[in-house]
Amino acid sequence: MSKERARRRAEREAERARAIRANEERQARRARRRALLARLTPRPVRFYRQGGLIARRHRAQNIVVALGFLFVQAIVWLMWGSLPLSLAVLVFSLLLVPVVVTLAFDRRI
User: Fold this and answer.
1) pLDDT tens digits, residue range 74-86?
2) Among the listed residues 74, 100, 97, 76, the one whose alpha carbon sits nearest the alpha carbon of residue 88
3) Which pTM value belongs to this model?
4) What CA–CA distance (Å, rounded) separates 14 from 21?
């Protein structure tokens, strides 16, 4: 009877060892798959606003430039209303904005 119990216990332990090994292999495969997926998935780019004095000043300057650009476009559209003239002023304004920023605010875009 004792030999029979020892044999059954050995079988149970062998089965338990096989189950543990299979579980570890599954977990290892799952971890490798997650690692591969993490490497292949692009991470979202997060933009954080800077809050210093220079950042606030640049933000205000950018707003002034944008409002000036929109003001010029609105004036040309309302006063003349010509599509070719409006497009010409749009292109000219787009070329002139970096010059105005550099000269007026002493910085480069």
Assistant:
1) 999 999 888 899 9
2) 76
3) 0.50
4) 10
The length of the chain in residues reads: 109
- Written as one letter, the residue type at 82 is S
User: What phi and psi values does residue 20 have, to the nearest 5 degrees?
Assistant: -65, -45
Q: For residues 39-73, b (16+ Cβ closer than 10 Å) or e, as one string?
A: eeeeeeeeeeeeeeeeeeeeeeeeeebeeebeeee
Q: Do 61 and 105 form a contact (C-beta atoms < 8 A)? A: yes
As separate numbers, helices (DSSP H) first and strands (DSSP E) second, the chain gives 3, 0
Distance, CA of 40 to CA of 69 (rounded, Å): 42
Residue pair 65/85 in contact by the 8 Å Cβ criterion: no
